[in-house]
Amino acid sequence: MGFMDKVKAAAGVGTAGLQVDVAQRPTKRGEELLATIRITPGKSAQKLNYLVVTVEYEGEWFVKNADGQDIRILGKGYVLHDKPASTLGATLTPGQTVEIPIRVRIPSDSPLTGEQIKYKFYTRADIDGANDPEFATPLEIRG
Predict the structure, then answer these.
(1) For labelling, which of 91, 112, 116, 119 has a CA lying 20 to 30 Å from the CA of 56?
(2) E strands, the chain, where?
(3) Do 82 and 53 touch, CB atoms closer than 8 A?
(4) What is the pLDDT of residue 1?
């Protein structure tokens, strides 16, 4: 890759793209998120270091201990935090599309969305020497 190609890649010109199709969005605990992540290559071959996929919640929530007392938790929790093995060190070649199906069930003991809790589905493709395409969408888990 020549100098100008590297400058263009760093600016995101002619580099790999990320498209996410959410087929099913969960609204209750026990429901599933169904999505397909597509990574499309740029104009030249590029190395995909990894793809990270998360379903996460952030904020403040409480859980009961064995004595029935509330324990306050402040921070981030993950329903899914994954780097699919098929994406680790993969080479993206022009004309090729990498598809990663995602199926995640929201656990029955997950906290609910509210003033203190926010959920999101997030993915980012780490492309060697280029801007990393990413996608994020909020989730509302109300029941």
Answers:
(1) 91
(2) 17-24, 32-40, 46-64, 70-82, 90-92, 98-105, 117-127, 134-139
(3) yes
(4) 47
Q: Break the chain into its structural domains and give their ranges.
A: 3-54+79-108+123-139
- Render pLDDT for 74-111 as a digit per residue (tens, 0 to 9): 999 999 999 999 999 999 999 889 999 999 999 999 99
Q: What pLDDT is attached to residue 120?
A: 97
Q: In sequence order, which residues have a C-beta less than 8 Å from that of residue 17 and are 6 or more positions away?
A: 39, 40, 42, 133
What tokens were used for 131?
A: 């801007």
CATH for 3-54+79-108+123-139, among 1.10.150, 1.25.40, 2.60.40, 3.40.50?
Answer: 2.60.40
Q: pLDDT tier at 14 (50, 70, 90 boundaries)?
A: low
